[in-house]
Backbone:
C-alpha cells in the first residue's frame, strides 16, 4: 500500500479532476467530512470496507487509488 500522504493527494487530485465538492464525495462514499479531510491530508487511510466506496465515487479501481503509483 502507498504512503498515507500519497493516497491523500490522489484522492484530492481525482476529486478536483472530477469537479466534485467534498460534500458530494462524502455523500456518494458514505463518509463524513472530517474523515475525508483526514484521508486527503494523509492523517489516516480509509478502512478496508470504505476503500471500495471511495474508489467507486472517484471512478477508480481500489488498486489504482490505494496501491498503484
Residues:
Amino acid at each position: 500500500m502507498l504512503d498515507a500522504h500519497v493516497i491523500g493527494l490522489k484522492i484530492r487530485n481525482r476529486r478536483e479532476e472530477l469537479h466534485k465538492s467534498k460534500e458530494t464525495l462524502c455523500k456518494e462514499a458514505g463518509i463524513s467530512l472530517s474523515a475525508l479531510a483526514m484521508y486527503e491530508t494523509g492523517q489516516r487511510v480509509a478502512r478496508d470496507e470504505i476503500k471500495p466506496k471511495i474508489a467507486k465515487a472517484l471512478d477508480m479501481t481500489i488498486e489504482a487509488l490505494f496501491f498503484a503509483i
In short: The chain has one domain: 4-66. The helical segments are 4-17, 22-29, 33-40, 51-57, 62-66. The chain has a mean pLDDT of 96.
